[in-house]
Structure to design on (538 residues):
């Protein structure tokens, strides 16, 4: 297994022969996603709990710190000791498969102050010559790769060991004020690979890749910050080679759908990489992505928060105070590079962040101006002219009815509306197929205003009694006469003769409002020519 260690500045530049150039931009975004979040200061709460994706710790610690056991950290079950990738590939058995494992190795940046006696004491911060230095956890990108013939994997599993040693680098600060010590701890890993042909699908193979942390440190009772020192962070895998055709697991061809459902991916998920339409590369990421993920060409650089909008983050970063920028620069070198890029960004680059048109599609057909249940919203419905059967009588807008609420007890209005007469304004149908009749109560002083606003009472057909317009006062044969006693079940008034609503204190009368002492003139309102009511003389 070849190992490609890199320095702490950036991931290894892609070599042309490894075939992964098309994946590098997205893979680097995955590698540093959440590494340091806006406002890029150490003191920000969101930068106090880090390393949330692709964390592979020592097995003993991960199993002890799982759900319901051990000192589980904030990330809970996000921490594991292995990742498992299963994907489908069509290829000749002689095809060469290339796999690259990428991750971060934690590096502790410890600031130490000189004690004046040749020794040093660890501190959280130190101002040296006007420059602030802060203690913080950095990370070093690591890569390792393997190439194997597909046919060699049929006979059984192949295992490849990898490791990255610990180390310590010291940087003295000007003037003898102190030093910055960067420490790393050893990390061990194993890459296990095998392949098997899918039954009934000649030439279709399931490729199985498992990445494991093989370290034994720390113990199961160690805190998470200690376990992270020996962990693989932001772990992900690139898979490619010559003559390989990978199949999408999210949108597989019909003949491979059953095989795709059998693939089991744990703590990672493989998607097709490269340009849309290509099938020669796979990125197995701990962050769920779609097939063929891309970094927008307008993006001038990584902000470590790919789910956010570059323009917004850039604007927010520009608004940081001088003290906040000073702290961000002291926190991490990558934060300092973000600030440098934002502060020196040309106007034309910034304008590109506002948006771009990737494709044009025909405009959809114009939607109805009104909702489907309103007049003109649906050709099959017309509330103004539709009819509904009420006791076998067709009732439509303009029909007069008597209100007989069903007495559900849920609406206090029912008690006051029972027995009142009303005029139907419209017949509505709901999505369940039920019919509702909108009515305006007779002699309601606000009837015209409510009609103008479209405010009505709504009743089901069985809660209404049709009135014959040819009878006296609109009451035909079979309808209760105007002065008749209450209908069965209708509440009585205080005199025991008429319906309760007949003696309502606010029962309206023509030309006024019925109050406790009889009609009162409309001294606060006057009718306008258009029938609306307006308030005068506040």
């Amino acid at each position: 297994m070849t190992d490609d260690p890199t320095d702490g500045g950036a991931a290894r530049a892609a070599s042309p022969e490894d075939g992964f150039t098309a994946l590098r931009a997205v893979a680097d975004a995955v590698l540093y996603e959440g590494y340091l979040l806006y406002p890029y200061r150490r003191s920000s709460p969101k930068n106090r709990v880090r390393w949330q994706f692709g964390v592979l710790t020592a097995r003993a610690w991960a199993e002890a710190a799982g759900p319901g056991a051990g000192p589980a950290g904030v990330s809970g079950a996000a921490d594991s000791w292995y990742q498992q990738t299963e994907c489908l590939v069509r290829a000749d058995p002689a095809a060469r498969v290339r796999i690259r494992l990428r991750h971060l190795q934690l590096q502790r940046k410890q600031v130490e102050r000189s004690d004046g006696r040749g020794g040093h004491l660890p501190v959280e911060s130190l101002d040296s010559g006007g420059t602030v230095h802060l203690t913080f956890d950095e990370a070093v990108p690591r890569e390792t790769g393997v190439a194997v013939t597909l046919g060699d994997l049929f006979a059984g599993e192949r295992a490849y060991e990898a490791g990255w040693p610990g180390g310590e680098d010291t940087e003295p600060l000007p003037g003898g004020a102190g030093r910055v010590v960067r420490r790393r701890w050893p990390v061990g890993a194993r890459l296990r690979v095998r392949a098997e042909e899918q039954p009934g699908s000649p030439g279709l193979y399931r490729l199985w890749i498992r990445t494991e942390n093989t370290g034994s440190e720390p113990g199961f009772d160690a805190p998470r910050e200690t376990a992270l020192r020996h962990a693989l962070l932001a772990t992900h895998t690139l898979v490619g080679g010559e003559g390989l055709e990978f199949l999408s697991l999210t949108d597989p061809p019909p003949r491979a759908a059953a095989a795709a459902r059998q693939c089991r991916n744990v703590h990672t998920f493989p998607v097709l990489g490269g340009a849309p339409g290509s099938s020669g590369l796979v990125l197995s990421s701990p962050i769920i992505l779609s097939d063929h993920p891309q970094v927008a060409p307008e993006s001038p650089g990584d902000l470590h928060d790919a789910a956010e909008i570059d323009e917004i983050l850039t604007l927010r970063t520009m608004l940081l105070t001088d003290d906040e920028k000073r702290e961000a620069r002291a926190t991490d070198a990558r934060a300092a590079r973000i600030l440098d890029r934002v502060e020196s960004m040309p106007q034309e680059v910034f304008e590109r962040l506002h948006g771009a048109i990737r494709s044009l599609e025909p405009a959809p057909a114009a939607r109805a101006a009104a909702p489907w249940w309103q007049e003109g919203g649906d050709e099959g419905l017309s509330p103004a002219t539709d009819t509904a059967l009420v006791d076998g009588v067709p009732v439509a807008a303009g029909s007069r009815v008597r209100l007989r609420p069903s007495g559900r007890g849920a609406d206090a209005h029912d008690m006051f509306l029972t027995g009142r007469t009303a005029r139907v304004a419209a017949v509505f149908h709901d999505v369940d197929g039920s019919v509702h009749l909108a009515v305006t109560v007779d002699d309601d002083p606000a009837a015209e205003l409510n009609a103008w606003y479209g405010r009505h009472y709504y009743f089901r057909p069985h809660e209404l009694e049709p009135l014959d317009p040819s009878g006296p006062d609109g009451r035909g044969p079979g309808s209760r006469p105007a002065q008749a006693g209450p209908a069965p079940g209708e509440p009585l008034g205080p005199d025991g003769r008429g319906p309760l609503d007949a003696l309502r204190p606010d029962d309206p009368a023509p030309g006024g409002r019925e109050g406790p002492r009889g009609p009162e003139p409309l001294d606060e309102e006057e009718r306008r020519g258009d029938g609306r009511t307006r308030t005068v003389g506040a």
The first strand starts at residue 2 and ends at 5. The chain is about 15% helix and 30% strand.
